[in-house]
Write a structure and sequence with these properties.
alpha+beta; 4-stranded antiparallel β-sheet; 2 helices
């Protein structure tokens, strides 16, 4: 049997596609679970797995619809906006497809929330963490400018050097 180079290249390409689809896996999903009955009608999942952005997510879980899907510059990340309406506790089957073929399947858990639990209130100001870099503020206490064992000394002239700001200088 005689094969042309073009047919041989097509066969190799199909084999490589088949092999790569078997090697895909989901390594991480954040958040790892969610609670049924949360007040917010949206949830964004971050999915990490080799070349996951080449696949299309689908679900038929009652009370959950896939809104927008965001692809990052890195093909190993996919962000999925879920639209939630009256979600019940249970395992949502999240399928990742290429065309009509399901390549991967992932079970995402919606946990039951206990009545009267602290998480019933939703998010408020107590859930916020604010990070600041005191070094870039005023130097309110010059006695802490030199630290034993620290190689880099205080030098406000260097853009990326230590500037000597501290908690006293913030207030």
């Amino acid at each position: 049997m005689k094969y042309s180079l073009k047919k041989f290249q097509n066969i190799i390409a199909l084999c490589l596609i088949a092999i790569s689809s078997f090697s895909q896996s989901i390594e991480k999903v954040e958040p790892p679970f969610w609670w049924a009955g949360m007040r917010s009608p949206t949830l964004q999942l971050m999915v990490y797995g080799e070349n996951i952005a080449s696949l299309t997510p689908k679900t038929s879980y009652r009370g959950v619809k896939i809104g927008k899907v965001h692809k990052a510059d890195n093909p190993n990340y996919l962000f999925i906006d879920l639209l939630l309406t009256a979600v019940q506790p249970g395992e949502m089957k999240l399928e990742f497809k290429t065309g009509r073929k399901t390549v991967l399947s992932y079970k995402y858990l919606f946990k039951e929330r206990l009545e009267g639990s602290a998480d019933r209130k939703g998010n408020d100001a107590s859930d916020v963490v604010y990070l600041i870099t005191p070094d870039r503020f005023a130097n309110g206490d010059s006695t802490n400018d030199t630290i034993a064992g620290l190689k880099e000394g205080l030098n406000r002239e260097l853009e990326y050097g230590r500037h000597g700001g501290d908690l006293k200088g913030i207030s």
